[in-house]
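Encode chain A's predicted structure.
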Amino acid sequence: MERMARRVRRTVMMDQRTVHGLLGAGLLVAALAGCGSVVASDPAAAPAATTTAPPAVGCASVNQATAVSIRQAIHLMAPVGTNPVGATTYRQVAQVRALFGQLCAAVTHPAPTTLMHCPADFGTEYVGTFYDGSRVLATFIFASSGCERVSVTAAGKTQATMVYGRAATAAPHLSADLDVIIGGQKPGLMQPQGTVNPGGPNMPA
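Encoded structure for chain A:
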């Protein structure tokens, strides 16, 4: 009977040692896991990925424009004693965006191509570039004499139209907005085109 009791005690003692060993191993694993979690949560170890949308260009960037550089081009012989008008940069943001928006409204509502009577075409064009700071957003050409014509180029794509019909309806303030920018600083540079009938002599104005 005594021998059996001793065997029972030894068995109990071995079980206690085993339990202590398992507890120690468990604590060690938990400690290692805790260290691992600290490293994983360290912002220096895993920097957060940042995503930025690409900057808009062309007509999608009308509300980003901050300046426009415009120069006058005359394709016919300029009068003797006059100097060509060089490029000038205008930074009135509201006026710049208004002109940009009118140009885009015209080219995105192009008038149908047709044979038209365009009197008083002196070959006067305004060539310009819209900027967001120093970043180029779009370039444009506005032929203001005779039948008005506009084109806007951005990201290698050009849209153009004559300004009559649906294009004129979509951009009713195009000439006025250009005149506000240029005419305010260079009086008389723009000539009103309101008397030109874009539909030709046999069409109602």
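Residues 2-40 form the longest helix (39 residues).
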